[in-house]
């Protein structure tokens, strides 16, 4: 198993940026898909980005031009850089780990963090 703890959320004005962090611990020897998902009320959890084997990256259409996912080689921390934030980006952002794809399906992930709130005001 792995344990995931997100941080870096907060309140930001439209057009601003945030960098979210996901601290990873546990059985980090396994080659997980690490994904970032966003939960908004009344909607399905949306896959934003994922990274596999520290190199292979995937992005959802809603953020692909405003988002960068990366992973620290030493401590496995996963980052999500969010730029040009919009009010519709408001939600709870979760980091997740899973054994297989497709990367964008929340149900394919086995381990989840507690989430970090991002609020974007106009």
Explain the overall architecture.
The structure is a single chain. Strands 2, 4, 5, 6, 9, 10 and 11 form a 7-stranded mixed sheet that branches. A 4-stranded antiparallel sheet has the order 1-3-8-7, with no helix packed on it. With 122 residues, the protein is mainly beta. It contains no helices and 11 strands. The chain starts with a strand and ends with a strand. The mean pLDDT is 94.
Kindly list the characteristics that best describe this protein.
mainly beta; single chain; 122 residues
Helix-strand string: EEEEEEEEEEE
Query: So how many helices?
Result: 0
Shape: globular
Oligomer: single chain
Count of strand segments = 11
Poorly predicted spans: none
Q: What is the terminal-to-terminal distance?
A: 40 Å
- What is the radius of gyration? 13 Å
Main beta sheet: 7 strands, mixed
As a percent range, the share of strand residues is: over 45%
Helix % is: under 10%
pLDDT averaged residue by residue: 94
Alpha-beta content class: mainly beta
Give the gist of this structure.
The protein is an all-beta fold.
Compile the SSE list and pairings.
Blueprint: E1 2-7, E2 10-13, E3 18-26, E4 33-39, E5 46-52, E6 56-59, E7 67-71, E8 78-82, E9 91-98, E10 111-112, E11 116-121
Parallel strand pairs: 2-11
Antiparallel strand pairs: 1-3, 3-8, 4-5, 4-9, 5-6, 7-8, 9-10, 9-11
């Amino acid at each position: 198993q792995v344990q995931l703890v997100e941080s870096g959320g907060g309140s930001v004005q439209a057009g601003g940026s945030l960098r979210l962090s996901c601290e990873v611990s546990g059985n980090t020897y396994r080659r997980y898909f690490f994904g970032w998902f966003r939960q908004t009320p009344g909607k399905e959890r949306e896959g934003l980005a994922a990274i596999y084997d520290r190199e292979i990256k995937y992005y959802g259409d809603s953020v692909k031009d405003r988002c960068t996912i990366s992973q620290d080689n030493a401590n496995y921390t996963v980052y999500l850089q969010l730029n040009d934030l919009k009010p519709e980006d408001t939600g709870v952002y979760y980091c997740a780990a899973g054994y297989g794809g497709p990367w964008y399906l929340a149900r394919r992930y086995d381990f989840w963090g507690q989430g970090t709130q991002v609020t974007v005001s106009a």
